[in-house]
Amino acid sequence: MSPTDAEKRIRAAYEAFHRRDIDAILSCFDPGVVWVHPDGMREVGLGGPKHGHDGIREFLTRVPGVLGGMILDPHEFLVDGDRVMVLGDREVTSRDGRKATLRFVHSWTLGKDGSAVHFEDYFDTVEMFRLMDPDSVRVPQPGAGA
């Protein structure tokens, strides 16, 4: 897969996300994909690895329960073999209408057929928590047991 083809494939995933087209999003991922979100998001059911299309679908259906909306704006695509790093911003809207722009880095690993076999999302989880519905967030207290 050429660098141009790899970038086109990843751009298609972002376009599908903008359309909220779950089937088109999943078509960009291998059925055995590992999708990793920051561990700090476990408190709202979003952190850690998700496996396969069912894991991604579950993740994507959980997000509207804690946020009002999200728009991804990828700025830069860095391609090296089967790895694509995407730098960008996400505009996040809370369920009560507050907004913030958070930077992200997405790491994609593509399989031989060009579908993503691994995806990892890096962003400021503290700022994300500030935008989440307080009823869905249980922030651990210092000194409290896990």
Please give the structural blueprint.
Elements: H1 3-19, H2 22-27, E1 29-37, E2 48-51, H3 52-62, E3 69-80, E4 83-93, E5 99-110, E6 116-123, H4 125-131
Parallel strand pairs: 1-6
Antiparallel strand pairs: 1-2, 3-4, 4-5, 5-6
Write a brief structural summary:
With 146 residues, the protein is an alpha+beta fold. 28% of the residues lie in helices and 38% in strands.
Would you kindly provide a written description of the structure presented here, covering whatever features stand out?
- 19% of the residues are buried.
- The chain has 146 residues and is α+β, with helices and mostly antiparallel strands.
- The longest helix is centred in the first third of the chain and has 17 residues.
- It has 4 helices and 6 strands.
- It has a 6-stranded mixed beta sheet with strand order 2-1-6-5-4-3.
- The mean pLDDT is 89.
- The radius of gyration is 16 Å and the shape is globular.
